[in-house]
Amino acid sequence: MSPVILPNSVEELEAIAQNVVFILQSGADQVVVVPEDKRTIENTLLVLQEAQSEAACLQTLCTFPAMVHMDKDVRVAATEAKKLLQKAWSSLFSRRDVYVIISRLDSASLSTDAQTRRLLEHTLRLFRRHGCGLSLQNQERLMAIRSEISIKELDFQKNLNEDTTEILLTGDELDGCSEAWLSGLKTKKIDEVNYYRVTMKTPDILNVGKNASLPSTRKRVSVTYRQVCTTTNGPILEQLINLRHEAATLLGFKNHAAYQLDINMAKTVVAVENFLDGITTSIASKLEDDRKELLDLKKVECQRRGWSFDGELQSSDVKYYQELLFKEKYSVDNNHIQEFFPLDYVRDQILGIYAHIFQLRFQQIPGKYWADDVTLFAVYDQKAQNAVGEDGTKNQESFKIGYFFFDLFPRPGKYAHQCVVPLRPSYVVSKTGEQVLPIVVNVGNLSRPTAERPALLKHNEIITFFHEFGHVCHAMSNKVRHSLFNFSWSAVPYPTSLPTDFLEVPSIMLENWLWEPAVLRRLSRHYKTGKQLPEDVIQSLIKTRKVSAGLKFAQQLAVTAVDLKLHTVEPEGREETIPEIWREMTERLVGVKLEDGPGCNPAAQFYHISMGYDAQYYVYAYCEMHAHDLFTRFSNDSSGHPKTLDNTLGREYWDKVLAPGASVDAIDLLRDFLGREPTPDAFQRFLTLD
Fold first, then answer.
1. Which of 7, 78, 255, 413 has the most CB atoms around its CB within 10 Å?
2. Which range of residues forms the domain containing residue 560?
3. Which secondary-structure segment (H or E) carries 633?
4. Active-site option among 173, 323, 468, 504
5. Residue 244 domain flag
6. pTM of whole model > 0.70?
């Protein structure tokens, strides 16, 4: 039986949303009615937190459907519900009467209870960031701005989710693309000519970008994608930037980036800029070599095909010539290699690897959920069960620690990228002592199976799958008392305390497993022959890890630079348009030419800028720095053997890095696992060594 059931109708969804609003309002009202001389931590702060936990458990039932529901009316209603609930959370933390009561609590009485003392500190921080330290007039303006921001961010996301842009291309125009992918596309016949319908969703964009041999085809898809939602999301983004800046300055910050970073590990814009400058310097030589290597391939191909060579690397050239480089220099053909990675088998093996290194057990729960291909699993703490011997076998349910869903394939109206969405946080119910178990959904957009073959994964898709499942385990590990300290991110409206520039650290660290020969052997089984990936191919694949790494980081830095500039420069003082800034950063920092077309605006498709990563796209590189540092503990032992499958060390990682959630400062989690101060040394070596 499913631990949660999404609403099937607009009416059911709206009723849940209204109940959440009532719970939040009632929780605050309960705090206010306590007589002043009777107020304690228990009947104020903890009552407020319990209401938040209860609301958090319900609210994603009426917000998550916006990302996945089959019924468009329900998706639209879920988007509206999220606006309502974000306003409800803002209303809670803008209540000055509650703030005064909480701020007068005696934190000295919590000297031996670090988690509740931290709860008090973080709760007060939420109230202050909602303007409770401002004049009433300024706070009211702040709340009005926040409401507008919420509405516009959700409209931005909805526009992308509901977009149905597609272009028609012939088989000749898609020369180079695999028959396996083409066979999964819908077709349309016009004047006796058969066309393939290529969408602007991730699987189609990547297949064309990596495999279509005609530059005109790649350019057409690239330009069309950059035109998606430009007339709707372009103006929304401009408005968001203005509103965010005004809100930040009302709270006393110089700009929106300063506001966002104030509660992150990096703390300041200057620190982030210095960090990014360091990467730029480190990769400069590698970036130049990467560009030259791809340009040389382009020149040779142009000569071979009789095309004119323009001497420039276009943005639509990059993935294509990287794939060609893999094939010609490293004998790595991703279209062939994916035949060794059927999704169902890879999924089961990934679960097996995670079960081993963290000492867990996963059990699928049969059933029908919101879509036919959605699956549900329960998670058990096998280490804890084993520790009590036969008694554990008799009472296995007591060792259940959470649930997760897989929703892995694209469909109309669904969120178009990869992520893990918390459906329910973990926390302890104060009256009963019961630990509420977490529930998350791994949302994917992998290529669907066809009539001829199962769903197959390229190596980079396996890395993404493994990464996202790291987030699943992060959520499953949390056994904190208060929901505020759970794994979460801005896809859900309820507040969380996990710094955004730590959120990706655990999963990026785990990506290292996908470059280990033993892991690749275990994951591979040809969908026809059942054979493992040949050893020479495994070794060749591993050698590609740093192929075009300079370009990869430069592209990431360019997007980060756009994000930071938009959220640090005073909007009225900005002279360039957003597309002009995007072009400038791409061409200056990456050194590739961005193809243009009518109405192109790459920022209009940039989910992150509307989903809580605004002024925080730097976190991917920042988290990678800490991830490389953490991985030093899993590097080879004294005899030269890797420790990636050492489940004693893996469980230590679970206990020290994942399980505490945000109940401990992120820097202290790193220190505890490393046994020393974190350093950028391992990341620096990765950036500079071939």
1. 78
2. 269-337+547-647+660-688
3. none
4. 468
5. no
6. yes
